[in-house]
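Troubleshooting: if your tokenizer reports a length mismatch, compare against these two reference records.
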Amino acid sequence: MSNEVDLTASDEPIKDPGLPEHQYRPTDTDPAQEKRAERQISGMFGAATVLLLVFSVSYFVIDSDQTFLGWSASNFALGSTLGGAMLLMGVGIIQWAKKLMGDHEMIEMRHPAASSAEDRAEVLQDLNDGISESGFGRRPMIRNSLLGAVGALGLPAIVMLADLGPTPKGQRNTVWAKGMRVVNDVSGIPIKPADLQVGQLVNAQPAIMYEKGADGEPVLHGTSLLQAKSKGAVIMVRMRPEDITPSKGRENWGIDGILCFSKICTHVGCPISLWEQQTHHLLCPCHQSTFDLGNNGKPIFGPAHRPLPQMPLALDAEGYIIAVSDFPEIVGPSYPQLARDQKKLDNKV
């Protein structure tokens, strides 16, 4: 008894399943319309390039406070130019596919999941044929205009890198200065040593956050206030002096066991204030980096590799806690460049 399967004529595909006759596109039969479509598509890609250039110029020229019909002029210009460029590129690519690329009806037989070597070779050949039929190589106007638009698409990305924030070198300084009082970050009240108990942690800010000028307006406001708070936020803790092991040169940075550290984790910049009184460890809630505040804020667990920046403290004439200086260490996440800058700073010290 034979196991071979005899393929009969009924197993062959239907030659004419009743589909309507293939309709050729106007661009397939009329060279003039083909050229017209090519110019239209190239025009879309060229217009997209112009809009991307306008986006880059608008980013620097239009002030963020200007308005247009009640909207932010900057947002309107950036959104309309970038959105328009993306729309034109998308429509251009669709029109290219619909009007100029190869338009053939194909029949594909069903086959096992594992394709044979011949099938794979045929697919590669079909891909190469598709590339050839698309006219990418023989339509330089469309090709070059598309490549120009795609290349210009990188300009907004480069321009908007400025919105990611200051460079690592720009994070070296904060608003802390010699003689500035440390105040409670909720009430804004200056802090005296008697206000802290052993084992206590207090979230604090520089006093300038709450100061007002001669006109009665806050010294810092708006974006400048937010930027100052993001880099100047600190925590103060009080430990028994015998539990503190200061490194060389930091023997007088505290006041009777009171130490001050940046609230910004040196891993990726999360605010940090989870305090373990018994172990003197400070934990970051984002990625569990752990710092030993009794040992100069050194990391003992987690992804952070740089100690938590410490600020030296003193008392003013009225007995309030003040900063001796700004942080001698760089405040912020430990980007590679930031780590190299910190190493250079440590070598100078």
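Reference record two:
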Amino acid sequence: MRLLALLLGLFLAANVLIAQEKIPSKKDFSLSSNKHKFFFYWGYNRSSYAKSDITWKGPGYNFTLSDVEATDIKQSEFGPNYYNPLLFTIPQFDIRVGFFLNDKYAIGAGWDHMKYRTKDGSQAKFSGTVDPSVSSEYSSYKSGDMVTIDNSYLKMEHSDGLNVLNFNIERHDVLYSIWSENIGLKLVSGLGLGVAMPWTNSTTFGRSNDDRPHFSGVGAHFFIAPEFVFYKRFFARTTLQGGVVSMWDIAITLKADKSDTHAEQDIWYLERSLVLGYRFYIFPPRN
């Protein structure tokens, strides 16, 4: 059902573009002829995360939990989240627009919207100091002690989005095509860089922040993706992407708090996504 809704949206958008576009020749729309085409895609992702170290710094505490386990959040059932413009950021999604510099290479700007939550009940190693006035429980720990994560008391969660706004460079290689290149299989690979803008829903010693977007660091990734092309313009791409999000200023307090309280974390991840897209000319080539 999710794919049907997405296909319908792409079909309607494609008809608007086609109505405004001068039709290029068949040669111009071959799979191997890409120069000056644009593309757009939208789809959904799931992610896995390596264990990471998280540091909390604030008045009365400066400590690190090492080898913290985390998961993403199960996608919601199909419903308004997938077609209501006011709710579309609830599921994990990828969106991108791009432009082909030549037949093989393209650049693109996009938004990877992942989700991250520390695993409740898992264990991590403590180091650092916590004043008893801040937390009687954590002040009793010594460096090297194992701590059981209780998300109601101490949690790192980027649940309104472990968002990375990024730029990609992509290479496109045609592996196989049939029926005058109406249908084909491509291999897309590349890398990207961006900025981390998470909406962090954290809890620090039982106190929550106000879950707001905040520039926290940078991200980098590489990816490989088989892409199935149909009717020359439409495509479905399934991507395997590995990357890191390095954040040195994660918001963990209320916005009104002007102290230098923050968290630091490097997250290594493996993302799997399925997207549907459309490629087109805005300025068709001259025949």
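Descriptive notes for reference record two:
- Residues 2-20 form the longest helix (19 residues).
- The chain has one domain: 2-280.
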